[in-house]
Recover the amino acids of this structure.
């Protein structure tokens, strides 16, 4: 019985080793990309747009320009 337990323990440890696991790869890219075509491109466009709209906090002129209200914006102070 003792030898059988050791064999099972060795098998368990062997199955946990990284060498025994196979990495799955698909040639057509990620499966999510195949389900939603064009998603990666849309994300890249959105990130590019977001980066270009950010203001450099060290540039006072950019910061004050960002803080100015537009024609259709206003600040209203009220009590709750």
């Amino acid at each position: 019985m003792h030898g059988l337990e050791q064999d099972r323990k060795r098998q368990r440890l062997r199955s946990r080793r990284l060498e025994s696991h196979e990495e799955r790869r698909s040639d057509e890219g990620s499966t999510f990309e195949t389900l939603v075509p064009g998603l990666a491109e849309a994300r890249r466009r959105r990130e590019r747009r977001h980066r270009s709209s950010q203001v450099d906090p060290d540039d006072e002129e950019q910061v004050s320009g960002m803080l100015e209200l537009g024609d259709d914006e206003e600040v209203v102070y009220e009590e709750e």
Notes: The first helix runs from residue 2 to 16. The chain has a mean pLDDT of 79. Residues 28-54 form one domain.
